[in-house]
Specification:
2 copies of one chain form a homodimer.
Chain A: H1 3-19, H2 32-39, H3 43-55, E1 59-62, E2 66-69, H4 95-103, E3 111-112, H5 125-138, H6 153-162, E4 176-178, H7 181-192, E5 198-203, H8 207-215, E6 219-226, E7 230-231, H9 233-239, E8 245-248, H10 262-274, E9 279-282, E10 307-312, E11 324-327, H11 332-343, H12 348-359, H13 362-388, E12 394-395, E13 403-407, H14 414-423, E14 426-427, E15 429-430, E16 443-447, H15 454-471
Parallel strand pairs in A: 3-14, 5-6, 5-8, 8-9, 9-10
Antiparallel strand pairs in A: 1-2, 4-11, 6-7, 10-11, 12-13, 13-16, 15-16
């Protein structure tokens, strides 16, 4: 029996058990290994079955624990819709809207759901500071000199070691350090594209990626993206003849929170390698998973050096440090040359601090706490939204990262709602920011990596109320 | 009498006095103010006359002192030639040569004339370290958060204050901080050009600028550049209809060391503003002058916001910090947006350290020492080259910065000479690196910001010997 059907069969068996009440809401599922033995199938088949169930919001994973029958199964709120493929002429992006949202980010008295970073209360600032002082003592020429363009050797070594958490076999030689993940994407893009080329991306997509690609004189195709399983491979196949590169956030992407199943990752890597289309993979959320293990990036299945794997610590440790990296595969030499031309080298200090943090187990320790905090925040947010928002609100079901994507009643224009919410000192990211087309106007992205308290809940209540008012 | 003729007349009077021996080699010239009074002309006219004399190597300036009848007047070595305008199809740049030279830069046992940075012995490393520790204590969230894309406010404020050293009237609001001057040029270029546009630059030109412009899909016109007075305005006028932007290193450019006279700067600013062609000005060497005062940048004469003035502390304080800036004039908003898309924000720590260093007079103090060291090194180098190199060697006469440009016998190919010199553990930058055309093959750039000692003199002697051997 072909594997595809096998995993669907197992998924259906479990789904039946949930429907019938054999498995109850909140109950823990048997472990992957147990199910594997019961049905005599491979671990991957069980994992795929679980992903299928997750994508239907039937089950959900909890950090360091396992899979549970989902509470949201009985939620009134559906998943957001999958977008349609649009190959029309690209329209003007709402740069003014982006600027407007950015301008409120520094307002300290706001409840700020619009940010794309983790609240500072969740960052190990004291430990990082100790690291700075320690590193400064030992740094060659105190970091005043140029380092090789490829980047600090200690950081590269530790990223390579860290790649073992997802079965990566990178060496220090495979990695180029950058000024954050966005900067890594930038180098990757200018390495594999020429102005006038076309790049396929997810939709909705983080506006920083969208704007950067546009600013390089590249054309964009936004691929339909499932809120749980990521880009549609069928649609990717359709546009293959038109595209010169892909740029995907494969694990807990921003804003949908989708995570491509392993089988999809394999297929995409194989497909793009066969067609000689480079895959730029932004894996900056991969370490913030709610499930039992870190999802592998596409890079784990890259046999031809066709994947440029990008990452950073901006979402987990210190956004302001601007420490990121790219493992550009077969494009490495060209990437190093691009970096050399762009900025010569990166300052060594923060690279050494992060390397030190990783090397002594502090990163792993910090991530364990951070994942739990974020997972709990996610539950708080979802519960509050279910309570306070209109019943026809659709909501994403991220298994990692820290953003929620909401699809509201089609009558709501979140750009207008934004102006109203700002008067109540509430900020969020309107959906229109996340596309080049005129859509997602009834959507919004909420960051749940802020400290959960009564004020936050009150703000969600207010937001829900404002939406209801708009509907009347 | 028109001013142009007036300054030439005064220059000729002084030249006559030098030729006749009335003014002797090494003798100090009357001050600018004295000459101004004697001939009843403006200060600018005297300054222009002095520049004219400097351009003929008849006089030279000394730090904190004034102008002297040049020793090199009686030097056997001539100035390098002015390049010819070439409008032919651009040729392949010698990227392999650049990579080869870069690969030897980390060889610690080399006498390294190829570097573009000041030796660490000339940097105030201990004071900078103190600054880091001090700043770290007071930094908001210890620098883990994002700052506004425009850059750290304290640094911007201090750069604005510092601009008063060249009659600038910048405010903190005019400045965008960057990751070094090269990165500033990058943002300036992507702000004012589109792929396919044409940019006029000096020739020879720093290979980093050349390669960066090329990598952005831009075409390049290399303008003939006088080793003392910089680009030829006549040739600039000729190519005006073909170009979309200019990118000039106006003060002590790399590698020629030329410094545009004030009158030329005014004319260029006026000309480009009239034709609506943005001027990207790289002024990263302006603070390292050997004369009595800092030469003004073109930005000082910019009335329309058409000049994007770039700078950094990479040549004076700490290359590895990657702290630079651009004052983009009327292009500011677009530049900020480009930076936001490229890397979001810059880490605040080193920006605060540099701001603190400037604010408390430590920068000015350091520069005074640095200028004297470099000026003395320049004299040592020129003397040694005159002594050990063939008589038909031509040499630049920089009044600031820290590189010398040598034009050797046309039979010498410095790319071949480089391979031989490397065997003697001597590095330099072959001329071919500094152009997109097949020229300067008999030229080389030497960095004199290395600690002068017997080993360095011995290396120059060896280099001279190797050249003489090649000529036989």
């Amino acid at each position: 029996m072909p594997r595809e059907i096998l995993y669907l069969k197992i998924a259906r068996i479990i789904e039946d058990q949930i429907s019938s009440g054999t498995l109850k809401t909140g109950e823990k599922l048997p472990s992957i290994r147990t199910i594997q033995k019961i049905y005599n199938v491979s671990i991957n088949t069980v994992k795929q079955a679980f992903l299928e169930l997750e994508s239907k919001s039937l089950i959900e994973s909890k950090p360091k624990s396992g899979f549970y029958v989902s509470h949201s199964f009985h939620s009134k709120l559906e998943l957001p819709s999958v977008s349609q493929l649009q190959l029309s002429q690209q329209e003007k992006t709402p740069e003014d809207l982006i600027s407007k949202v950015f301008n409120t980010l520094t307002h300290k008295d706001f409840t700020q759901f619009a940010l794309g970073v983790v609240d500072k209360s969740m960052l190990p600032i004291a430990k990082l500071n100790k690291g700075v002082v320690k590193v400064l003592r030992n740094l060659e020429d105190s970091g005043t000199g140029y380092e090789p363009a490829q980047g600090n050797i200690n950081l590269r070594r530790n990223i390579a070691k860290w790649s073992f958490t997802w079965d990566g076999h990178l060496t220090e030689d495979d990695i180029v350090t950058t000024s954050g993940a966005l900067n890594a994407l930038f180098y990757a893009l200018i390495t594999v594209t020429e102005p006038g080329d076309t790049v396929a991306i997810e939709s909705p997509v983080y506006f920083g990626i969208l704007q950067m690609i546009k600013s390089l004189g590249l054309h964009i195709i936004e691929l339909p993206t499932h809120p749980v399983t990521g880009i549609s491979i069928e649609d990717l196949k359709k546009v293959l003849p038109k595209i010169n590169a892909c740029c995907f956030v494969t694990n807990f992407n921003n804003p949908l929170g989708s995570c491509m199943p392993e089988e999809n990752k394999k297929e995409v890597v194989h497909l793009l390698s066969k067609h000689n289309i480079p895959l730029i993979e932004d894996d900056l959320y991969g370490d913030i998973f709610f499930g039992v293990s870190r999802p592998k990036p596409c890079k784990a299945f890259d046999e031809t050096g066709n994947v440029l794997w990008c990452g950073s610590v901006s979402k987990t440790l210190a956004p302001g440090y601007r420490v990121g990296w790219v493992a550009p595969g077969k494009f490495k030499e060209k990437t190093i040359r691009k970096k050399l031309l762009n900025t010569m080298s990166s300052p060594p200090l923060y690279q050494e601090v992060i390397a030190d943090f990783m090397e002594h187990g502090r990163y792993e320790h910090h991530l364990r706490t951070l994942r739990n905090t974020l997972y709990n925040n996610c539950l708080h947010f979802k519960k509050a939204i279910e309570k306070y928002f209109p019943e026809n609100t659709k909501i994403s079901n991220p298994q990692g990262g820290f953003v929620l994507w909401l699809e509201l009643d089609p009558k709501i224009d979140t750009a207008i709602l934004y102006d109203i919410a700002v008067q109540y000192k509430i900020g969020f990211a309107p959906g229109r920011m996340f596309t080049q087309h005129n859509r997602y106007n009834n959507c919004m992205r909420l960051n749940f990596a802020i400290k959960w308290d009564e004020k936050v809940e009150e703000s969600l209540k207010t937001l829900g109320l404002l939406i209801k008012q708009q509907l009347q």
